[in-house]
Amino acid sequence: MTDNASHLAFALPDIGEEEIQEVVNCLRSGWLTTGHIAAQFEKDFAAAIGAKYAAAVNSATAGLHLALEAIGIEPGDKVLTTPYTFTASAEVIRYLGADPLFVDIESDTFNLSPELVESAFQRRPEGIKAILPVHLAGQSCPMDRLLAIAGEHGVRVVEDAAHALPATFQGRNIGTLGDATVFSFYATKPLATGEGGMVTTDSEDIFKRIKIMRLHGISRDIWDRYTADKPNWYYEVVAPGFKYNMPDIIAAIGIHQLKKTERFHKRRKEIAEAYDQAFADLPLTLPHVRDRNDVHAWHLYVIKLDLVKLSITRDVFIEKMAKLGVGTSVHFIPLHLHPYWRDRYGLKPGDFPVASDCFQRVVSLPIYPKMTGQDVDKVISAVRKVVLENFR
């Protein structure tokens, strides 16, 4: 067993004194729920992304739910998405009584295959109302092709950008392409507030609907009702909404995390480049970057083991890494292998062969701004040791 004190965590947030002080100021202000700090965070985030609107929510899951509701997804509709993602990407579709229509992925990027997306429309065009691409690990999906398909078939696009801050496609920021884009601020994400998320859009209608539905379907935010020069306690419930608002105490962290995004990304990229160089001679498939002119967020660094050339399985690889004091993870267990999705839709591993094959071979290595040079060297040393000692 490894010594816990020397164990390198798979992921850690980078929280500074600025975030801590902002939270303290928020606590002392007496206003903890959604108020002027959340509003400032929204304004700053929209400006950073280049979107017209940004709506802060208490999780990316909430943001995806709200975005799909805002574009009109209803019971019986279908939303085309990937099985190679966390369950939240698909479960929000079920929240609305709709059904996900899964499509297999590209083996090199783990993102939706545009060819298979087009094939899905050719086979089953009825009922598909939206495409929900996931920018896995921080690399954009081929949005030009997906948007073209969506336009041809008259469907909307809601992007899951939980991994993709900051990322670009053909020079444009993720968050400015589809009808709505959802970012995650979970503890391990590139911008970390513990929990929380943001929805960006250029549609005023989508933005207004999300603002109403994120707080019980009430026509006015509590900040507006109780802090105006002439407070107006009156409000109206205009829809059966949800409780998805982001409190100021969370936004206080986000405001300063956002200012550090460039520095955080620079460090992630440096680590990715160090890994690329160190592992180039090993029987591994390293992350594929589609276009070096675009920005890869490097939320994850996912390697694929060449199991033909290794005498161990992926799971044994992970165990051996842990014994050497390095935490790793797997992204993701494809949804069609989970009991709920498998049983509800009668899915089999062979239905999505690329996703199933990738799952058997992938390992995510630590990559986060708090890692020191010594930490990076420790990961490199452990990977090389495990691979070379188990090379056939």
What does this structure look like?
By secondary structure, the chain is an alpha/beta fold. It folds into 2 domains: 17-260, 3-Layer(aba) Sandwich (Aspartate Aminotransferase, domain 2); 262-389, Alpha-Beta Complex (Aspartate Aminotransferase, domain 1), CATH 3.90.1150.10. The chain has helices at 17-29, 36-49, 60-70, 88-95, 114-123, 143-153, 204-213, 222-227, 248-259, 261-279, 314-323, 339-345, 353-361, 373-389, and strands at 53-57, 78-81, 99-102, 128-132, 156-160, 168-169, 172-173, 180-184, 197-201, 284-285, 301-305, 362-365. A 7-stranded mixed β-sheet has the order 1-9-8-5-4-2-3, with helices on both faces.
Topology:
Blueprint: H1 17-29, H2 36-49, E1 53-57, H3 60-70, E2 78-81, H4 88-95, E3 99-102, H5 114-123, E4 128-132, H6 143-153, E5 156-160, E6 168-169, E7 172-173, E8 180-184, E9 197-201, H7 204-213, H8 222-227, H9 248-259, H10 261-279, E10 284-285, E11 301-305, H11 314-323, H12 339-345, H13 353-361, E12 362-365, H14 373-389
